[in-house]
Amino acid sequence: MRKSATNDDVLSTREAAERLGVALRTVQLWVEAGVLPAWKTAGGHRRISRAAVERLIGERRAALSGEPLRIAGAEAPDRSSDGRLKMMVVEDEPDLLRLFTLVIAGWHLPIELTPACDGFDALLRMGRHRPDLLVTDLNMPGMDGFRMIATLRGAEAAFDAMEIVVVTALSEAEIARRGGLPAGVRVFHKPVPFDALEALVRERVAALAAAV
Question: 38: how many CB neighbours lie within 10 A of its CB?
C-alpha cells in the first residue's frame, strides 16, 4: 500500500539515524538539544521532519568538505549574567563523556556544562551556548577535533577568545603528523588528568568572578 504524502514527510529516529549515517543515540541527543525538531505520536514515538534531516545533511556535508560553516548565533553574543563559566566537552565515547559530566559536577563550581558527541555536534551547539572553555578529543568519527578546531579558529572571529584544551590519546608526534594544532591550544594526554583540568577550570572561574 502506497504511503501517504504525510508519512513521506516524516522519519522515525532510527530512519533519521540511517539517513544521516550516525548512531541512533546521536540523533536522540540532537533531538533533545533541539538540533533536530521532533514531536511525539499518540503512541509516544518520536517523529522527525524529513526536511530538517535533509537540511542537516547539507550542513554536515559543508562542514566535512571544508566549506565555510555559518555558526548560528555566533555574531550575537549572549553572555551569562550569573557569573558561571560556560564549558563544552566534546568526546565520542559515551562512557567517558558521562565520566566528564560526573567529575565536573563533583567540583561544585559555577559551571554551565554542554556535552557534545563529535566535532559537528559541537559546532551545532556552539552558537547557542558560546563556551568560554572548550575541552575536546581529537580522534572522533565524522568531524574530528582537528577539523573542528580549524573551523573555529579560521572562520569565526567571535570564538577567538574561547580557550581550547585538547585531551587526547595521540602523542605529540602523531598530532604533528596530522597537521598540528593552532597556537595557544593546550594539550593534555589520556588518561584524562582531571586534577590538572580542575586546576585550569578553577583559574578560569576565578578570573571570570574577578571580571564581574
Answer: 22
Q: Are residues 121 and 197 in the same domain?
A: yes
Q: 91 and 44: one domain?
A: no
What share of the chain in percent tops pLDDT 90?
42
Task: Give dist(CA 136, CA 148) in Å, integer.
Answer: 9
Residue written as grid cell 558527541: 117
Assigned C-alpha cell, 137:
578529543
- Is the pTM higher than 0.85? The answer reads no
Identify the domain containing residue 96 by its residue range. 85-211
Tens of pLDDT along 135-144?
999 998 878 8
Is there a contact between 142 and 120 (Cβ–Cβ < 8 Å)?
yes
Question: Are both 94 and 198 inside the same structural domain?
Answer: yes
> Both 126 and 51 in a single domain?
no
* pLDDT classification of 72: cutoffs 50, 70, 90: very low
